[in-house]
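CO-FOLDING WORKSHEET

Operator: S.A.
Ligand of interest: zinc ion
Run index: 345
Mode: holo prediction, single chain
Checklist:
[x] sequence pasted
[x] SMILES validated
[ ] output reviewed
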Amino acid sequence: MKAVYIEAHGDVGVLQYGDRPDPAPGPSDVVVRVGASALNRLDIFTRQGQRGLEREFPPPLILGGDTAGEIVAVGDGVSTLGVGDRVVVNPRLACGVCQWCGSGRDELCRRSRFLGTAMDGSYAELVVVPEVNAYKLNGGVSFTDAAAVPTTYLPVWNMAVRRAALQPWETALVFSASAGVGAAAIQVFKNVVGATVIATTSTPEKAELARGLGADHVINYNEEDITQRVREITGGAGVDLLVDHVGADVWAHGFRALRPGGRYTICGATSGLRAELHLGLLFSRQIEIYGGYMGSREDMRQIVASLNRGVIQPAIHQTYPLANAADAHNDMEATNFFGKLILQP
Ligand SMILES: [Zn+2]
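OUTPUT RECEIVED:
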């Protein structure tokens, strides 16, 4: 099969397009003919060997996590899926047997592995995954839309829907609407929860796209002060909940934008890992902070059910042929996009 793989860490020049052996399923695995794969920032870190993702070569590693496609082979022990089923893949493989996996909080599994970092991923014509990581799609959902979902929707669901429990009468602030997590949060908060959504972005064009996804208010952070605009929009109250996937650059703005008792949810820190926390304000304003990393199997089931019903509509920026994965990596690093970047074999 054709695949995009690396034999060393580095810049986009290490991405190789070529032939790799077809994967064979283990007893509880399915083989998926990839219809689409979505890029994530994790793919860049894996390629570079940053953030704890350094590995030893050989063997080569096929990159890629989020994917959707059609099942073409199943292991002997597979009972819930069959050849011809259309599926979307949760790229985080939990161990299935630890205390957390057994209690329904498998997002806390310490022995989980990630498709495309610890094992061959989905930048390929075929990918093998455990049966429990594949979720059936109905015929109305494209592979492109489905592939765009798992890694961006899971943390939003985990933090803001399940744990911090955003409510329809509340107002949420979403940082950087153009990134995958930002676009996902707008869709979930508007179409699933029914909350009022304030989004931040950097250009008038991106602001228009954010409104199209469902944002009620958009703040252009290059021209407006986020804290002041949030105060104006909320009548001085502050927001009930916010979603941060940017990190150091927005932490202080976000913290000030919360009402007393507000919930700060964070699932990424692309702009920097360290920030200063005012402990006095944390307790006197009774702020709650939620960290999120992917989500549980039950979160994924609920997300796919919403996708199958047409309740959520992922934002897609551009689709690239698999052979042009380097172009997609360059575009992601240039951060000049709105929504997901998709590879198609
Ligand atoms: Zn586990």
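REVIEW:
The chain has a mean pLDDT of 96.
The domain at 153-291 is CATH 3.40.50.720 (Rossmann fold).
[x] output reviewed
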